[in-house]
Amino acid sequence: MTSLTDMTIAGLSALIGSKQLSPVELVDAYLARIAAIDGDLSAYILVTTEEAKAAARTAEAEIAAGNWRGPLHGIPIGLKDIYSTKGIPTTAHSRLLKDNVPSEDAETVARLAEAGAISLGKLSTHEFAFGGPSPDLFSPPARNPWNRDLQPGGSSSGSGVAVASGMCAGAMGSDTGGSIRGPAGFCGLVGLKPTYGLVSRRGVLPLSWTLDHAGPMTWTAQDCALMMEVLAGHDPADPASVNGPVPDFKGAIGRPVEGMRIGVAKAWHESADPELVAAIDKAAAVLAGQGAIVDEVTLPDLMDFHAAGRIILLSEGFAIHQRHLRRQPEIYGALFRDRMRLGAFISADQYIQAIRFRRTLVDQMNLAMAPYDAILTATQYGPPDRMEEAPVFPFFGKPYFTMPFNVTGQPAAAVPCGFYSSGMPISMQVVGKAFADDVVLAVAHAYEQAAGDRVTRPAIAGGGQ
Q1: What is the pLDDT of residue 208?
Q2: Which of 42, 155, 165, 241 is catalytic?
Q3: Choosing from 13, 80, 266, 427, which is the catalytic residue?
Q4: Could you tell me which residue ranges the Amidase domain spans (predicted)?
Q5: What angle do CA 256, 258, 264 make, to 5 degrees?
Q6: Known catalytic residue: 19?
Q7: Is 234 within a domain?
């Protein structure tokens, strides 16, 4: 029998909406799950037990009175600890903000609460969404639930771990160069980086103003769509928020891919693990079997996106943190401190040239994608590294498959597409045109339904699996 904490948001919502499941019972199940396994996984920095129980009682009373707010009403979620929460610490997993208690919620947090979602607490992150799995912070780094000796990816590490291991039904992450899609891929989830400007970032601690995205991480594409129904839309208080039509997320689920043209970026995968390449080819064949027109697409050079994106990220990140880095560098963890210091060596003209080059790259990607509804790429090169092998400068190696779509701002989702022979999840990236986030989730859902591989959860000792 499937436990409550292994169910999808959609499945739980159906039970709550029909009054077969109480939000109080559901929250209690998740809190028990956290108590049983998070000591080994460290997904949570803070569990807001009493607040969650009070919200569950309120949701139960509202639903009993016939005031069901919608699919997220009574659903337990987690928040990456860079999302401001009124009266509850928001630390960015850093000693610098260990005592920071915001006076208001982030816009996304407020929207989720208005929809009836129940926050279970604040989730582990790489320090300020950049520092890596640093062991010298005030709270330990999150560990991969499929193999706790391996990294879960970052920077939304706790979000990936919590959803994969059944410690919340959905979570919020942030993505500046792949920080939603990376942990979603390594933890076996769907993680959507929405189109830039579609989801408000007001109240989310920034890393790079022009590359940051806020978005959901869930077990399935349908669950992502349910969260996006609430999250998407204009926020006049966020200067980057776009005042325009919101994609039809509800209609995306079940939309056929027959007749869609989907490109596979095979040239990008020359250095990727052979098992990963084979899995993406198999996923492409599954979509072709559903009537999609699948062929190879030639995309701009991956290294160009890497160069532009890293210069922008480091320049803007250093601008945010330079005062504290100069005056009290020891307050940061070693990985964040050493990585972010690189921004001090980037000149103004280099930053401006990167911003200008970005425009060229956007035009090149738009031209390459013009004939396609969506494209498929890898999310990572292979399985995750061991926890103790986190490099100080990971971006000095191979360029990330995820960074191009922070540079362009297009919607991109990590979607599970099988397992390595080691048992670790394999992930592909589904990418759409700007503001075609619904198409991305339609392709992801169609693949999930045809492949039928969204059943296996990580086996965790002591977790009742």
Answers
A1: 98
A2: 155
A3: 80
A4: 25-441
A5: 105
A6: no
A7: yes
Marked catalytic residue, from 174, 179, 241, 427: 179
Matching residue, tokens 């790259």: 361
Residue 462 lies in a domain: no
- 213 within some domain: yes
State pLDDT tens for residues 141-182: 999 999 999 999 999 999 999 999 999 999 999 999 999 999
Number of domains in the chain: 1
- Alpha helix stretches (DSSP H) within 341-457: 348-369, 404-408, 437-451
Would you call 94 a catalytic residue per the annotation? Answer: no
Residue 193 and residue 175 in contact, taking contact as beta carbons nearer than 8 Å: yes
| CATH code of the domain in which 317 resides | 3.90.1300.10
Is the whole model's pTM more than 0.90, yes or no? yes
CA dihedral 149, 153, 157, 160 (to 10 degrees): -90
For 312-327, letters b (16+ CB in 10 Å) and e give: bbbbbbbebbeeebee
State how far the Cα of 226 lies from the Cα of 445, in Å rounded to an integer. Answer: 12
Convert the pLDDT of each residue in 209-244 to its tens digit: 999 999 999 999 999 999 999 999 999 999 999 999
What would the pLDDT profile of 430-464 be if each residue is shown by its tens digit? 999 999 999 999 999 999 999 987 888 999 865 54
Distance, CA of 257 to CA of 439 (rounded, Å) = 9
